[in-house]
Amino acid sequence: MAPPWQMQKGTVREWVDDRTSLSSGTFEGESLFSEGDAIVGAGPIGSAAARHILERTSADALAQVYVIDGTQAGTRGSHHDLARLIRAADAEGDAKWSVRNAASLAAFAEIERESGCNFFHKSGALVVGPRTFVERAAKAAQTAGCELELLDDVRERFAFLTPATGCDAALYDDSAGWLEPNAMIEAQLEYARRRHSDRIHVVPAAVQSIEVLDSTGGGSGGVFVELSTGAMLVVDKCLVTAGAHTRALADGMVEGKLDGVSVSRRTVALLEISESTAHELEKVMPTLKYRFEEGGGASVSGNEQSKTEATSVYLLPPVRYDNLGGRYFIKIGGGPNDLMPENVSSEEIAEWLASGGDAEMASKLADIGRNLLGGVTFANEGHETMACVTTVGSDDMRIVSSPCKRVTAVSCCLGKAAGPADAIGAEIAKHVVGISDRCIEVERKFAPPSDLQTMRESVSRLGGGLDSEKVTRFVDEYYDVPSLALVASDCWLRTRKVVEGAASSSWELKLPVDVESRSGGEREVFREVVGLEHVASELAQILHEPSLSADAWKGVLERIESENSSTTLASIAKFATERFTFTLDDCSIDVDSADFGHAVMEVEKLVASPDEIPGAKDEIARIASSIGATPLPPQNGGKLLVYLRKYRQDVIDVLVRSGILKE
Predict the structure, then answer these.
(1) CA-to-CA distance for 28 and 48, rounded, in angstroms?
(2) Per-residue confidence at 534, pLDDT binned at 50, 70, 90?
(3) Residue 618 is part of a domain; what is its CATH number?
(4) pLDDT over 60 (residue 193)
(5) What residue numbers bound the domain in which 327 lies?
(6) Rounded distance between C-alpha atoms, residue 97 and residue 432, angstroms
(7) Domain CATH code at residue 36
(8) What are the residue boundaries of the FAD dependent oxidoreductase domain, all occurrences included (predicted)?
(9) 141-157: per-residue pLDDT in tens?
């Protein structure tokens, strides 16, 4: 049978029914889906996310990934060019971007080796400008573990450069360079094919619409993705990594979480050089980020990204453009943002990309480039132009999701995501699938920080940060059968309803990994099962009630969601929490304040197997030490146990009688 993207809508149901017979899933009513994810956008981020999602779901042979590539349907994005730069140092001094850049640079050799596709050119990189500008970038690179070389006068090392007075300090990174984005995309996809050939599919089509299916009334939910071919792809989850087109496709499903994100018109100038000059410059010219005004950006409104862009340009070493007659050009971009309306359509974006850009801005960029490259002989006094787009709106990219993470959208990449796309893809995969739907969580409780701002500064210095999308307020409610059989088995069933924030509401079940780890639901190591269907299946195995199959338990949980009532399960604890989540390396740091007067900080790490637990504990200890955290004993620190001691002595008694809690 043909794959779904080659079918008309009428035959998609037949395809889904055929797949259902091959899987263990149950598909009911009209809510039918294949077991897998669709990724809308086969750019640098989408291709990297596909590979990392496949790695994180490698244990599930039925979990497919469909990468929807709109290129053949005429959809274009800002990555459709021949060169993008990458360096460890972030020009805005942002530690998070420096960490991403360094991680991606470190991964390039493996990706090229395992895919057989070369895409990276190690030319080195310079950040040039006023001393304060350069030192800020150097500090960001240091947080990523990169000690780069500071130059007082860039002209002493690179004689062909003639920067403006006061703008001649530099930071040099000899491990950096530039990449061919389309070649990198192919490398990511080929690497994924070689490791997961039966689970990755590249779909040549544009996306017309995305619709989340209702999961109430016994359905399983899912996502319909309508393709330009007239076919409908039916999947479990959908990831939208469509660059400037993301908001137009996904805004309605992520509930305003992309508000404030705008598409910025960008223009690129191309300065032509002869082939012989190009070959000479290839030996000595690094990529450049050049701030051409001392104290520049002070009069520009907006965040640091906007201020830096307004008074700086980037330049790439010579690149041969076959579409321009095989001639060689030095590419220059930058300048102030030129924002489109927030509700801009994909058609308007496409029209801009086809326009060739802003002629006046291109002339300004060309003049700045010629003034900086005073020692370079150009082929003529003219220049070529190209149009580009970026997404802006905050200091960091946004990875946001609809409830249950059915649809996840990635946007606000600030025009600097192509280079570190591999690290971004890993972040996205972690957000979308975690370790798995049945992962092991290792955590430790600590005294809460006395000052969140000091905490933020400490984490930032180490290369982490507070994710604004992870400031959440939620209500946890714990359930058990009347006999408290789950509590007696040290199993903890809860529903988390998110009141405010980007996280999704969900059912969760925490289970002991081994007897020694028991501590009344506040253990340091436990197995976590997430999602209504997975939790229902686990409950059927744990409680062994003949009348309650996995489907029956699913119905029980759904009735609690819709009616807030059940005769099978009873509430044993309920409290609200305000949470600030910091991220540092692969650990999450949650600072919680509960509504019954208890506060605690948790440092946690997810792992896939028991073999990884010792390493995770060491990592948590290292993170805690680096931020000066004070450990709390497991039996006294966690919110749930404190709540139960305060309000539910009957549950505490069961824990003691079962040998789970020692009084």
Answers:
(1) 33
(2) confident
(3) 2.40.320.10
(4) yes
(5) 122-176+262-392
(6) 20
(7) 3.50.50.60
(8) 38-429
(9) 887 778 899 999 999 99
Which residue type occupies 512?
Answer: P
Give the alpha-carbon dihedral of 604, 609, 610, 616, to 10 degrees: -30
Q: In the predicted model, what is the mean pLDDT of residues 159-187?
A: 97
Structure confidence at residue 404 as a pLDDT band (50, 70, 90): low
Under 8 Å between Cβ of 336 and 245: no
DSSP annotation of 629 reads P
**162 token code pair:** 């003639």
At residue 136, what is the residue type? R
Q: With contact defined as beta carbons under 8 Å apart, do 152 and 134 qualify?
A: no
Mean pLDDT calculated for residue range 614-625: 89
- What is the C-alpha to C-alpha distance for residues 354 and 360, in angstroms, rounded to an integer? 17
Q: Are the C-beta atoms of residues 173 and 122 closer than 8 Å to each other?
A: no
Tokens standing for residue 266:
């960008």
> Mind giving me the DSSP string for 232-251?
EEEEEEEEE--GGGHHHHHG
403: left (phi over 0), alpha (psi -120 to 50) or beta: beta
Do 54 and 70 lie in one domain? The reply is: yes
Same-domain status, 486 and 613: yes
Distance CA 36, CA 222 (A): 10
Q: Is 71 or 125 the better-scoring residue by pLDDT?
A: 125
161 with 246, same domain? no
User: What's the CA gap between 90 and 244, in Å, rounded?
Assistant: 22
H or E segment and range at residue 591: strand 587-594
| Token couple for 344 | 């801009």
Written as one string, the DSSP assignment of 152-169 is S-GGGT-TT--PPTT--E
Residues 300 and 441 in one domain: no
Question: Is residue 264 over pLDDT 50?
Answer: yes
Tell me, yes or no, whether 544 and 503 share the same domain.
Answer: yes
Q: Please, which residues bridge with residue 392 across strands?
A: 262
Residue 480: name the closest of 648, 642, 656 by CA.
648
Q: Is residue 85 part of a domain?
A: no
* Residue 388 and residue 353 in one domain: yes
Highest mean pLDDT among 327-341, 423-437, 480-494 belongs to 327-341
Number of domains in the chain: 3
pLDDT above 70: residue 466: no
Measured CA to CA, the distance from residue 124 to residue 171 in angstroms comes to 11
Tally Cβ neighbours within 10 Å of residue 295.
12
Instruction: Tell whether the model's pLDDT for residue 439 goes beyond 70.
Output: no
User: Residue 252 above 70 pLDDT?
Assistant: yes
Say yes or no to pLDDT of 633 above 70: yes
Question: pLDDT value at position 543?
Answer: 82
Nearest CA to 611 out of 529, 521, 541, 513 is that of 513
Same domain, 191 and 226: yes
- When mean pLDDT is compared across 6-10, 87-91, 488-492, the lowest value belongs to 6-10
Strands 149-151 and 327-334: unpaired
State the average pLDDT for the chain: 85
Q: Which two tokens stand for residue 365?
A: 């960029």
415 and 563 together in one domain: no
